[in-house]
Amino acid sequence: MATRKKELSELEKILQLMQIQSQRIDEAKRTIDKNQEETKQDMKETSKKMDKTKRTMDKMDENQRETKRIMEVTPQKMQENQEETKQAIEGNNKKIEERIEKYKEEIKGCLTMMKNEMKEQEKKIQNKMKELTNCQKRELENLEIKFENSLQEDKREIEEQVKQNERQIAEIKTQQNVGERREMFIHSTDDVKLRFGGDVKRLHPMPFINSLKKKVQHIGNFETAKETIRNHLKYEAGLWFESKEKEFDIELIARYFEETLEDHITLQNYKDIDSLCQFLQIRESRLRERKSRRSQEDYRHQEIQDHRDRRQNYRRDYTRGDFNPRRENGNKDNGRGNYEQRNRQWNEDRNRENQNRNTTRTNQENRNNGRQNEQGYLENRNRSDRPRENRREVNNIQTEEYDEERHYDENINNEKQPAYFQEGAR
After folding, report:
1. d(Cα 30, Cα 59) in Å, to the nearest integer?
2. Average confidence (pLDDT) over 366-394
3. Which of 264, 274, 338, 407 could form a disulfide bond with 331, CB atoms 3.0-4.6 angstroms apart?
4. Average pLDDT of the segment spanning 28-53
5. Do residues 266 and 389 lie in contact, with contact meaning Cβ atoms separated by under 8 Å?
6. CB count in 10 Å sphere of residue 384
7. Residue 143 C-beta-side C-alpha neighbours within 13 Å
8. Which residues lie in Low complexity bias regions (predicted)?
9. CB of 225 within 8 A of CB of 232?
10. Among 118-132, 139-153, 158-172, 279-293, where is mean pLDDT lowest?
11. How many other β-carbons are positioned within 10 Å of the β-carbon of residue 14?
């Protein structure tokens, strides 16, 4: 029994192995079939590709044949094109040469025309130049004749003017020696004449000064003209021009006011008419103030007058050498109350002086200068009868006073003088 069982088990194992082998064989067949099918498909695809390659090769052969044909045809075409271009270039060159020849002929004709025209114009210009030279000669001859005639007339007029000026200078010298005043006509414009005779009732000094200012402007601004006049005028005419340029106008103004003022003006040698007019205006205003002050104050004593001036101007003259605060304020002792009162009054006066420095100081200096000028006028009043050369010789004291007064007058710019007209100007 045991053997049978063993045999049965072995048979079963053999059957199992047979089954396994059969299964493997089936699988192998299946794989082989698949591979065969795949190979068949690959063969079909390769055959298709081979057909395509054959077709492409056939096309390549055809293309090569065409290229060979084209290569055989192109050199013929190139030769034909070259021949055509050569023919076209030769035709264009011929046309250009023909045009150039035409232009050359036209240019030659234009040049000949221009030459002929230039010759004609040169002939015309020469004729005109001859005519102009002849006209210039005639005009120069006429101008020379006119110039000679005008020179003779000018010489006659100058001689007459010199004679008249000599007469006027002689009259002025006699008037200076005698002290008389001569009536003159001053031409301010073409139609207007101003009479000047030294009388204030007939003519106010302001329009006379303005007329002189206008007259001097026409002369004073042209220095080059003056130099040429000096170079041309000689002898008596030169002397007349020097007197007319420097002293004549100023002497007239000086004679209009007073004789001592004439000394002052000739001493200072005013050349600017504006500064001289400003000086004369201030001088006239001072004279009016002096007369009004004399009539109001009735010639009081100078110390009382100084004290009154300080009181009217609300300031103290601390610059005076004789100033004593104890005497003026009545401080006889040195008490505390008097000291405070004096100090307070001092500060008030100082503040007021700083506020009104310009106006008060100018008024005070005007009065002081007026007093000095009065003294100089009284001292030099009777010196006008001396000769003209000796009038310029003035004492050093008087020149210093005049210089101070002149510098003070130049520094006054903010002070406006009121308008004043006397009876004759109204």
Report:
1. 44
2. 47
3. 338
4. 86
5. no
6. 14
7. 6
8. 356-375
9. no
10. 279-293
11. 10
Q: How far apart are the first and last CA of the chain?
A: 191
Helix pair 273-297, 357-380: axis angle to 10 deg: 90
Residue 247 tokens, joined: 């002293």
Measured distance CA(165)–CA(425) in Å, rounded: 30
pLDDT of residue 422: 42
- The answer to whether residues 183 and 227 touch, using CB atoms and an 8 Å cutoff, is no
Mean pLDDT of 315-334: 46
pLDDT at 181: 47
Closest CA to 388 of 228, 246, 259, 290: 259
Residue 173 DSSP SS3: helix
Supply 72's token pair.
């055989």
Cα–Cα distance list, 78 to 74, 81, 87, 284, 419 (Å):
6, 5, 14, 122, 117
Contacts of 247 (CB under 8 A, 6+ apart): 266
Q: Tokens 């060979």, residue?
A: 68
CA distance linking residue 242 with residue 276, whole number of Å: 19
In the numeric block, the tokens 């035409």 are attached to 102
Radius of gyration of the chain (CA): 66
The pTM of the whole model exceeds 0.85: no
DSSP conformation class of 335: -
Domain-wise residue ranges, the chain: 96-161, 181-314+367-411, 316-355
Binning pLDDT at 50, 70 and 90, where does residue 125 land?
very high
Dihedral angle, C-alpha 46, 49, 55, 58, nearest 10 °? -70
Query: Cα separation of 377 and 383, whole Å?
Result: 10
Structure tokens at 41: 């498909």
- The whole-number pLDDT of residue 96 equals 92
Q: Is the pLDDT of residue 337 over 50?
A: no
